[in-house]
Write a structure and sequence with these properties.
This protein is an alpha+beta fold. About 15% of the residues lie in helices and about 35% in strands. It has 4 domains: about 90 residues, no CATH class; about 80 residues, SH3 type barrels (Roll); about 70 residues, Roll (SH3 type barrels); about 140 residues, endopeptidase fold (from Nostoc punctiforme) (Alpha-Beta Complex), CATH 3.90.1720.10.
Length: about 400
């Protein structure tokens, strides 16, 4: 039997490709699987799609893993329409069986790291903060491949409390407290001298047990009980009802973090990258944005800034990068929040304010020259990809 196999590679959505005959199939199938002919690529930051191929005579065997049954059906059907092979589908849908029944998790430390590979030395892709729900998809050598509510994928080791579906539903239904202070600590008892349980950052969520005097008694996902100063948090449901992404609220929240250092992959008040900063500012006002700048540039309403930027409004997201040139596409590499009067706030070295006006003391020629586009988040409907926390299962009134 003539059998040709390839190791696992990425299979990306390919549109409008012709049907190929078997005499072309070796080169074409390889091209299809590796995505060299793609016109639109699936975003692998938010979707699992790892497919390998093995040719056994007239049979093309597909092995690997995909993110959902819908995606699997689409990919197999697409490939069937493009090659003259019988397709044998040996793909499985995550989560892997090795994960068992605990396919949910809650972040159990102030800030947990998501890495590109299951190793501490791997690139820091993103972070998730205390109380964030996670879907657990794979397990490897004590690491878990997870997906956060913004859709982002990455590997995590410590700082996650694994839960079954029933345990997760029970946790979700409990009343919560959201941390509103930039930084703080929970303690084992009331009083400033009591033992610290952990540090906390803005946006963290803990289960609420009782409210007493100047403290909330709270519980961590792993069962630890602690006390949080009332001035450092609010009951989550009440906070969520009042959360609103008005221009004034966005500016006030953003300015609270001035001076926080830049951290590649950072999404908390311990350190931000550019999109981690914008995402956090909007999250603290009841809006969930995608994780990366290039993803954020696809949501909200597009804004024509005008030749003198007069069409921009406070709270708009400004995007920077390299312009399209010939066959080279536009590439978004940075994002900021517009403050008005040609000023913007962003994470670059640290969280700081710069200007697009040459006469201004904080003028940034680099950002002026690399400015690409703007998007309006405030007032944009959900059809634009802007999601309110109140409409999401874990955060909103309609729980899991």
């Amino acid at each position: 039997m003539n059998t040709t196999c390839r190791a696992f590679v990425v299979l990306l959505p390919l549109l409008f490709a012709p049907v190929y005959a078997k005499d072309q199939s070796k080169e074409i199938v390889e091209s299809l699987i590796q995505g060299r002919e793609r016109t639109r690529a699936l975003d692998r930051r938010t979707a699992v799609l790892e497919v390998g191929r093995c040719v056994e005579g007239d049979v093309l065997v597909l092995r690997g893993q995909v993110h959902s049954s819908e995606l699997k059906h689409h990919r197999v059907g697409f490939l069937k329409s493009k090659v003259n092979y019988t397709i044998r589908d040996s793909l499985f849908v995550v989560p892997q069986a090795s994960v068992g029944k605990k396919t949910f998790g809650i972040v159990n430390m102030s800030v947990a790291n998501l890495r590109a590979k299951p190793a501490e030395s791997a690139e820091l892709l993103s972070q998730t903060i205390l109380g964030t729900p996670l879907a657990v998809l794979k397990k490897e050598r004590g690491w878990y491949y997870v997906q956060s509510p913004d859709g982002y994928l990455g590997w995590i080791s410590d700082g996650i409390e694994l839960m079954s579906r029933d345990d997760y539903a029970a946790w979700t239904a409990r009343p919560k407290v959201i941390v509103t202070a930039e930084f703080g600590f929970t303690r084992a008892a009331q009083g400033d001298t009591a033992q610290v349980v952990s540090d906390i950052v803005a946006g963290a969520l803990l289960a609420l047990i009782t409210e007493a005097d100047a403290y909330y008694q709270v519980q961590y996902p792993d069962g630890r009980v602690a006390f949080l100063l009332r001035r450092d948090g609010q009951p989550f449901d009440g906070w969520l009802e009042k959360a609103e992404d008005t221009p004034g609220n966005i500016v006030a929240t953003a300015k609270r973090f001035i001076g926080i250092p830049y951290l590649w992959g950072g999404t908390s008040s311990k350190g931000f990258d550019c999109s981690g900063f914008t995402k956090t500012v909007y999250y603290l006002n009841g809006v969930q944005l995608p994780r990366d700048a290039s993803q954020q540039a696809l949501v909200g309403d597009p804004v024509d800034p005008g030749p003198t930027l007069d069409n921009l409004k406070v709270g708009d997201l400004l995007f920077f990068g390299s312009r399209a040139n010939g066959e080279k596409r536009e590439r978004v590499t940075h994002v900021a929040i517009y403050l008005g009067d040609k000023e913007f706030i962003h994470a670059s070295g640290d969280v700081r304010i710069n200007s697009l006006l040459p006469s201004h003391a904080d003028y940034s020629a680099h950002h002026y020259n690399t400015f690409l586009q703007a998007r309006r988040i405030i007032g944009a409907g959900e059809q634009t990809g802007v999601r309110k926390l109140s409409g999401l299962p874990y955060y909103g009134k309609h729980k899991f």
